[in-house]
Amino acid sequence: MPPIISVSNLSKTYASGFEALKRVNLDIRRGEIFGLLGPNGAGKTTLINIVCGIVTPSAGAVSVGGHDILKDYRAARAMIGLVPQELTSNAFESVWATVSFSRGLFGKPANPGQVEKVLRDLSLWDRKDSKIMTLSGGMKRRVLIAKALAHEPQVLFLDEPTAGVDVELRQDMWQVVRFLRDSGVTIILTTHYIEEAELMAERIGVISKGEIILVEEKAELMRKLGKKVLTLQLHEVLAAIPAGLAAHRLSLAANGRELVYTYDTQRERTGITSLLDDLNQAGIGFKDLQTTQSSLEDIFVDLVRQK
Hints:
The protein has a domain at 226-306: Alpha-Beta Plaits (2-Layer Sandwich). 33% of the residues lie in helices and 28% in strands. It has helices at 44-51, 73-78, 95-105, 112-121, 137-149, 167-182, 194-200, 218-225, 272-281, 296-306; strands at 5-13, 19-28, 33-37, 59-64, 67-68, 80-83, 155-159, 186-190, 203-208, 211-217, 227-234, 251-253, 258-264, 286-293. Helix 6 (167-182) links the parallel strand 7 (155-159) and strand 8. Helix 3 (95-105) crosses helix 4 (112-121) and helix 3 (95-105) runs parallel beside helix 5. The longest helix has 16 residues, at 167-182. The protein is elongated and about 80 Å long. It starts with a strand and ends with a helix.
């Protein structure tokens, strides 16, 4: 099946000379949740704005559902819903009027049933007659999603969708995202909450300094790049790591009460057996141990640092 979004050799250089994107190539599969991660200024929002027709590319090509974003702008844009970072809506309009107007912007005929469905799906139906100015920040964020869905797009961009949203509401919105994906909507998610991408996305793309440095299935990324940490709780406090253990590259934690050993799960040997032997020879005893898997945040930080 062809990708629903295809980005080919995309570059963007602003008048100031700043190169925001450098020959980006990326395909988004139909029906997936794709997590786009990157530090501030990496080019995430520029990439989204180009695909959505807000910013003009300097070079390269982008198609959405087979429609070129420049040559067939209307058809391409009609397939896309965008939820921006900024909370921008007419403060004096009602929720119903705001969402209905967004549908009309794309030339869609009035459909009160569709607007009602969107508002109910986003738990906004009880506030349909409320003015935007009376809503909480989290509710305003939901209205932005409702506006983006009013014209029944096949692709939904969520640019930092839960910024400033409390934990409970954030979890509710994750459920909404899953529901949308299950209904056939392709979702591209950018977020500063790494755990959000780890929980929601099926594939992860990492962008740094305008370049895509990695695109990988989330599970495979965790498997290939994830490291495990072995933490040993010691019987006695260690002031320093003995010289005889230097080869294991250990670190002390908990004020000398713990030894921490990091190892690569992909290597043929983890080194744990030799570590335990050397600890025994050094007369260092431990009362408990535990292992933890590195998180997507650890992997992300390592990738960007290497770049």
